[in-house]
Specification:
With about 90 residues, this protein is α+β, with helices and mostly antiparallel strands. It has helices spanning about 5-10, 25-35, 50-60, 80-85; strands at about 15-20, 40-45, 65-70, 70-75.
């Protein structure tokens, strides 16, 4: 890994995806992040009740996926918002 790649990783905001295994949009958003070399933490809210409660408290939503980028929550797979918050070009 060269220094430019290391700098990019350091500058990337923390990304968390709240998801369930049966959610097709969750799979799509995670595939999209992987395709763009975005490191993220995947939290299965069907198995982690506290995480599910935290997600609802943050967003007011019970649906998944929820993508948390830094302190900003995106409900659903909103590619334009994800791109904007991560500085990805379309």
């Amino acid at each position: 890994m060269d220094s430019t790649q290391k700098d990019t990783i350091k500058k990337q905001p923390r990304v968390v995806v709240f998801s369930t295994p049966s959610c097709p949009w969750c799979t799509r958003v995670k595939d999209y992040l992987r395709k763009n070399n975005i490191t993220f933490k995947d939290i299965d809210v069907s198995r982690d009740r506290k995480a599910a409660e935290d997600m609802v408290r943050m967003t007011g939503q019970t649906g998944v996926p929820v993508v948390l980028i830094g302190s900003r929550a995106i409900v659903g797979f909103d590619k334009a918002k994800i791109d904007k918050l991560l500085g990805l070009s379309s």
